[in-house]
Amino acid sequence: MKVTWSPLAEGQVDDAIAYIASDNPAAALEWLERLLDRVKSLSGFPDSGRVVPELQREDIREIIVSPYRVMYRRGADLVEIAAVRHAAREFDEDEIAP
Fold this sequence. Notes:
Blueprint: E1 2-5, H1 7-23, H2 25-41, E2 50-51, E3 60-65, E4 68-74, E5 78-86
Parallel strand pairs: 1-5
Antiparallel strand pairs: 2-3, 3-4, 4-5
């Protein structure tokens, strides 16, 4: 299964790395490596994430790469990373659910 990133998610990852790196550059790199490893695993196990509780839709799932929620759309042969949001932030359905 192919894994792609939405432009929004790419920008959110950049913001997260910058935020973490402002305090601890090594931690930012470690977080990015964990994120990429977890996202890569979705190509073989696209249902490994839980259904996003706020939406209760089978096609929109998330994995946690602490302290961020990585939300993705699961299609028949594609996983699209839709949003990467800090878990403390309020959920915004408009970012991921058309």
